[in-house]
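## tool: complex_structure
## caller: assistant
## args:
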Amino acid sequence: MATNAQRRAQTRGCLINAARHLFAEQGYADTSTEIILSGAGVTRGAMYHHFRNKAELFEAVCDLLSREAMAAIEKAVAGQRGSLATLKAGSLAWVDFMARDDVRRILVVEAPSVLGQERWRALDERYSFPLLREGIREAMEEGALHFSGSAEGLTVLLNGAMNALVLNDPWAENLPRLRQDLLALFDCFSGETP
Amino acid sequence: MATNAQRRAQTRGCLINAARHLFAEQGYADTSTEIILSGAGVTRGAMYHHFRNKAELFEAVCDLLSREAMAAIEKAVAGQRGSLATLKAGSLAWVDFMARDDVRRILVVEAPSVLGQERWRALDERYSFPLLREGIREAMEEGALHFSGSAEGLTVLLNGAMNALVLNDPWAENLPRLRQDLLALFDCFSGETP
DNA sequence: TTGACAAACAGACTACCAGTTTGTTTTTAT
DNA sequence: ATAAAAACAAACTGGTAGTCTGTTTGTCAA
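## result:
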């Protein structure tokens, strides 16, 4: 005798968890709903009661991973002093999290295509993007960061640079080097590399 | 009485052209091979004679669009004097081309997912990436660009920044502003904005 | 408690679609 | 001229996302 809220959370959780691992291993298109169902120990009717379609289940997985990313960033940022150090630490935490094989495939490679550009943007806007933007704003206001364009624009550009860092390094072999390059990029705005 | 090479070029051209427009309008997953076939005026047998599968046809479309991008860039770069001016002009041309609705959807949004990370990277490596890398190398060697990290790394970062510029602006409403921000970013490396 | 209602779930069924197979026509090379 | 290969035609198949109808389980007011 479980409450409805518990049943709901249980079923959704099983589906999201099974889907998460299968999407990470085989990709969205090559993961059949049937194998998700058997992995979750749930029936078709249950799944389509909780999610309108396969893509909506994928979006729920994206949401979960994004929340995990936020947690990792907040943890990395916790002990930092100064807006620039905070920004750097948070950015590196983001990169490290996104470089994980499962996360990269789902959030970086497939999400824009599966969710479509708009819903993908909305996802970003809900999580990491505002965090990065506020970090940049603060650093600019404190004078730790100099940029002649807009803070919003710089956020888009840096966000993309970090994304590329993950996307261009399929097996994370050059990650240490690229992390350094990212830090060097930040330093270009703080006037330390004339 | 057409030669085989002509027949081949004709059939492939029709398929690629039809697929290009349909993929741009409805996306890869929602475009059935059947509608491509009727659009191209070609039968199933013909298509699967020239392409191993649907994804390979998509890749052919990507190749075509990438070549068109190269042409646009080379045209924009033609009259420029100086490595930095050349770099800026080429980058803006790349952004403007990729911001086109059809190009963005195919090359920026869907290609990483449909081709898979490796083949997508290979595509980039075949076209725009080397161009950008050489532009950056030259500018760095001439002293027009300063960066304490590697040229390769800076290429990855700038390439990603430009990608994000296109991806974060679904209806290109902020494109003029973002183009300015990109130029401001370049200036950070040339020591013009302390 | 009970009874009406809604939420959660079960599983068969359908429409469609990517890729295969087998057979036919056209070009090429000897 | 003829054998081989390239190009094409179209029927067919296995599998899959989403639907439909019906059943079970929880909720809440009287």
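## assistant note: Chain A has two domains: 1-51, 54-189. Residues 4, 7-8, 11, 42-47, 49-50 of chain A lie near DNA strand C (CB under 10 Å from a C1'). Handing back to user.
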